[in-house]
Amino acid sequence: MTTRIAAIVFWATLAAGQTGAPTDKPQPDPGQMPPPMMRLLGDYAGWWKALSDEAKDSFVDGYTTAMRNAEFTTHKECMDEAKSVQPGPEFNTKMQESLQLCALSEAFDYKAGKALRLSLDRFYRNPLNARIPADLAMEYVRDELKGGKTAAQLLDELNEWRKISE
């Protein structure tokens, strides 16, 4: 119920903002949905294609910076855990926790830079990928560029995301 009320208020506010006095600024094509709305409605390919190259580069830069920070933090925790492991009854449990953190830190490894943006451009050209969220698309192209997964593994993962995103 609360979601419905919020949606009604949102759409009413959006409609009210469109009835204002005309301005000298060029108005967007009424048939063209703004990129944030495309993303909100799940048209990730439309959102991505509507961004300028500069905006795409900024998105990729921000995303990879956040992932590097997450990688650094989890790797540091992994190393701290490994150093604190002492022989005794909890050795195996503590060592396993440390190894899990190390493995997790690898999931945040996004070092491909500009190649990520170009790969995302190619990824979203495929209409079957239109509804796949940007974070999953980034993961796919990262794995594709790193070569850590086979083509069959990547395709299986992609097909699963396509099913979920329908």
Describe what you observe in this structure.
This protein is an all-alpha fold. The chain has one domain. Helices cover 70% and strands 0% of the residues. The chain is built from eight helices and no strands. Helix 3 crosses helix 6 (114-125) and helix 7 runs antiparallel to helix 8 (151-165). The longest helix is centred in the middle third of the chain and has 32 residues, at 53-84. The two termini are 25 Å apart. Residues 1-23 and 25-30 have low confidence and may be disordered.
Question: How large is the count of helical segments?
Answer: 8
Rg over C-alpha atoms, rounded to the nearest angstrom? 22 Å
The helix/strand class is mainly alpha
Strand content: under 5%
Amount of helix: over 70%
Give the tally of structural domains.
1
Spatial separation of the terminal alpha carbons: 25 Å
Give average pLDDT, whole number: 77
How many DSSP-defined strands? Answer: 0
Largest sheet: none
Instruction: List unreliable stretches of 5+ residues.
Output: 1-23, 25-30
**What would the principal axes of the Cα set say about the shape?**
elongated
Order of helices and strands: HHHHHHHH
